[in-house]
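User: I want to check something. If I give you two sequences, will you return the structure for each one separately, not as a complex?

Assistant: Yes, each is folded on its own. Here is the first sequence with its structure:
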Amino acid sequence: MAKDSKKEERKAEKKEVKQQKNLPTRKGMSSSWINAGGYLFLLAAAGAFYFVLVQKSSSGGGGLDDGGFLPQIPANLRPERCPASPRNSSGEEVSIIIPYLQEEWFRIQITMRSILRHTDLGLVAEIMWISDGNPPDKIFADELKALHPKVKVFVNEKNKGLIKTKMEASQRAVGSILMFLEPHIVVAPGWLEPLLNRLGEEPQALVMPTLDFSPGEMTSYQKGVHGYWRFEWNMNLIFTNPWGREFSAMAEPFPSPGTSGGIYAIRKDFWDHLELFDPELILWGGDHIEASHKVWRCGGRIEIHPCSRVAHWFRGTEDRPYDVPVSKVVRNYKRLAEVWMDGHISSFYKVKPEARSMEFGNTKDMQKVRKRLQCKDMDWYLQNVDVELAWEEKHICIPGASKAQGGCDKPTPAPSRSTLDKVMPLHEFKKARRKLESGFNFKQEL
């Protein structure tokens, strides 16, 4: 019987390893464009894939782990100066919030396995899965609840969209800290404590882990690079590193002009104080822009923590199992631009001309919220948070368009950009950074 059991075990392992056949087998990977949910990111890939067999043991998660497959976590993932075994003794509990729509069960399994194996569940009040209009065969409520007593499944019978789903989940949450995740990730050991510790130091912060990669069928874990999130004038989200190199020794959290919007921690009382989000935003797109401006301009800060690591499957448009209504996304962008861009709104319309004639509703309530919060103006943001965006305002253009239509001098856009044919020169960037009240903690490079 033991031999038969081992034989079946080996068969199962071989079956899971076969999932790797569509992934590159060579070491190294060049920089590549990744389209995630309609945004273009230029993300530099790291040096190698890490292919593995099934991990059998639990690593401290304390959950009802099914012993199934997880990609191996690279040993040198975190900077050396990060604590080997991070601890958090604040006594506060976290509500993990994971909206999902048309997600494959194997990705949900990998996400949950990693949470159960690599999280101190004593810090977690609940793991909330919110099914946003899924058909019955894509809800997986019984399967999810069977994984751990702290798992809760909420079902939106009809699709409400990611924005309203997050708003409702935040109101249901019982934890004092909200931890938003996506349903196709792999959390690394010790991922949660650095975020909680930082929120203890900076209660008015939105803190993100450093994002790594779990490509394809999520059978590997690939180390990411340091950089930060920000926006172009058309509100396109980009990930960039103006210094052009990796800061592998840096273990302190560093500021980011924006958030990608899917994976971050924030205190519930600060979330409520900011009144996230605008209830008139439709379905999907723009919540990360509102969060970026509200947090920075209304008393807080956005940071990325190098000691917290989460691998994300960046889904291309061809892999997206649901439609994103582009016109509604642009409407959301216009609404946000009208509330937050002040005297710079013409720059938005220059590179988003289709938004000019769009209906966007009444923003008086949002203007009142901004006034109540005593938020700083757009000039402050350009001078103190995103100096690149200030430089880019003088150089924005539409690649491929004629000069009369605001076209660029060069036929193709600059790398990872959609509104520029050149980027801010490094020496100008460093000079501008020196003038800021608080740097990006890259002092050795300045």
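And separately, the second sequence with its own structure:
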Amino acid sequence: MNVNAILGNQMIFLVSGRSGLFNDFSRLSGLINKFAFESANIADNSSKAPAVEFRLQAEGTHEFSLKDEFVQVGNTGVMVKVSDLALNESDSNVVADGKKYIVPVFSKAASATVTGTSYGDRITVNQDSSGNTILSVESGGETASLDLGKIASLTVNASAGEDTVNINVKNYFGGITISGGTEDDTIGVNADVSLNRGITVYGDSGIDKLTLSGNVSAVLASGGEGDDVIDARAMTGADLLARKFYGDNGQDLIYGTGGKDELYGGVGSDLLISGGGDDVAYGEAGNDTIYGDEGNDRIYGGTGADTLQGGSGADVINGNEDSDIIIGGGAGDALWGGEGNDYMYGGGNYQISLNSFLGKVEVTELYSFLSGGEGDDTFAPSSMAPWDTAPYSGTGSHLLDYDPAVDILV
């Protein structure tokens, strides 16, 4: 497990295993308060680790070298035996006391990067009452915690293995970036992030589950390869910046937020549910199902036999290629079938007149526009009355693009 905390040109770098390295390019005085591992197993999976070396240096002016033997005491305690100590500048604030955490104290906000192992890690980031960011890592049966202080941004690279990453931070003024790695990962982010910062989550390869919540205006989430789930239904935030969700390859399930979102299904038969707000959803390649729900949505099926439903609001829905099922749902919808043999249902309370079969049918009541495009299409603008007895009434007529030679009106 690697942890890098960077402040300008300053860095603390932790490596667990047979040897480790700390680098801090600021003054050592007061920087490191406590330093220890939870147990000897972090060193070499035995009850007594051979000499493990750690070094701190500061731009060539401060250098600290410590060789210890870590001996497990019972199930919880750690005894540290100092076998070699070299320090070229006096520093009384470096303490090895067997605690279960490492506490770097920064003078101001820094950036932190956490890189996982191949063993399947559980990485948890929380905040304490003072706003400090607390990192906890479970890897290979061992647990270590690290107080990162008030950092400005956080990056987590889970690496290989089936990892679980949970981020829970409030009143956070930095950005958050998470990469899942090559296996089946579970990533959860609950964050309140300032308007000029955002959250970026990559599932990468594997069957990943990404759950996002909190008050965030800028979001980019990508499932990557595999059949992924992206769930942002509990996320809020002002519609000032972009919130984008990508399924990429695989059969993906994407839930948008209650605000303005962009959803991209990618390759594969995906299910996209955009939620409230004026959303844009692209099914792209594959036989996709898209629900617009509330808001004035724009929905594009892409290639494949898609099922597209606008929900409430004045929606624009385009089936694009292949044979699609298109349902407007609310009033004021515009539906385009595109290529293929499409079925389109406008929804709403239609009244219609069938006075012309020369290519256009006049639809009244200011509800929807339906266009069949190429192919043998089926239109169902209303279920209020049989077409042969439906009364003609209302003003402000719209047009149904209808070809009696190939299209069906039901």
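Because they were folded independently, the notes below concern the second chain alone. DSSP finds one helix and 36 strands in the chain. The two ends are 64 Å apart (CA to CA).
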